[in-house]
Task: inverse folding
C-alpha cells in the first residue's frame, strides 16, 4: 500500500451526470496532484495543490473542477463530461520542500467510463 | 513546452535477456525520476537522479543521468517475469512549475 487511497475505483457515468472522485493521503505530505492516464498517451498532469493552494492548472476543461479542503484530501468534481474523458484518473502526493522535488506516491486510480 | 520522450515504446525480450529504455528531455532537467507501473496497477517510484553523470544501481537495475542532464537510461540485467510492466521517466516541467512531466513509457513484455 502506498498510503494514498482513491474512491471509487470504477465509475461509469452519462454525459449529463455529476460525480466526484475522492483522494486521501495518509503520508503527511503537503502536495497533491491529479493526473489523467489515457491509452497511448503519457500521464497528463491536470492539477497541483501545494499546501492546499492550487499552483498548476494545465489547461484542463472547466468540466473538471478540483477541490482541496486540506492537505490530506483532494477531490475532482466532474460534470457534463465527454466520452473522450474516459480514462484512469490518478491521484498522487509528495513532500515538497521549496523547489526540491521528491518522489510522488500514487493512488490506485479511478477507472472512469463516460457513456 | 517541455517534452519528455522515451524509446522504445514496446520491448519484447526473452526471460534472462537484458533490457534498456532511454529517456530524452527537450530541456535540461534539475532531476529525473523513474517509475514502474505493473499491468492494472499504478505508477510506483523507483529512483531519482539529481547529479550530472550520476549512476545508481538497484540490484539488477542500473539508472544513468546524462552529463548534460537532458537524457537518462534504465538498464535491467537478466530480466525476470516480475520485471513486466511499463517504465516511465519523469522530470519537473521547468519554469518553476510544480508536478512532473512524464514520458510515454516503455512497455516491457517478457516471454518465458
Result:
Amino acid at each position: 500500500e502506498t498510503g494514498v487511497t482513491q474512491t471509487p475505483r470504477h465509475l461509469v457515468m452519462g454525459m449529463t451526470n455529476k460525480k466526484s472522485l475522492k483522494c486521501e493521503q495518509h503520508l503527511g505530505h503537503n502536495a497533491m496532484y491529479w493526473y489523467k492516464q489515457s491509452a497511448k498517451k503519457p500521464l497528463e498532469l491536470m492539477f497541483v495543490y501545494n499546501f492546499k493552494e492550487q499552483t498548476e492548472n494545465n489547461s484542463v476543461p472547466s468540466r473538471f473542477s478540483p477541490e482541496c479542503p486540506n492537505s490530506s484530501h483532494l477531490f475532482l468534481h466532474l460534470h457534463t463530461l465527454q466520452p473522450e474523458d474516459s480514462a484512469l484518473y490518478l491521484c498522487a502526493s509528495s513532500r515538497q520542500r521549496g523547489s526540491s522535488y521528491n518522489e510522488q506516491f500514487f493512488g490506485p486510480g479511478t477507472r472512469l467510463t463516460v457513456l | 513546452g517541455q517534452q519528455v520522450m522515451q524509446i522504445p515504446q514496446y520491448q519484447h525480450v526473452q526471460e534472462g535477456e537484458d533490457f534498456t529504455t532511454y529517456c530524452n528531455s527537450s530541456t535540461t532537467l534539475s532531476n529525473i525520476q523513474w517509475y514502474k507501473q505493473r499491468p492494472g496497477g499504478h505508477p510506483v517510484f523507483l529512483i531519482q537522479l539529481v547529479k550530472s553523470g550520476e549512476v545508481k544501481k538497484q540490484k539488477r537495475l542500473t539508472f544513468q543521468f546524462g552529463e548534460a542532464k537532458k537524457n537518462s537510461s534504465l538498464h535491467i540485467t537478466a530480466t525476470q517475469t516480475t520485471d513486466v510492466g511499463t517504465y516511465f521517466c519523469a522530470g519537473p516541467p521547468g519554469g518553476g512549475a510544480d508536478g512532473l512531466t512524464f514520458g510515454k513509457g516503455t512497455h516491457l513484455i517478457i516471454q518465458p
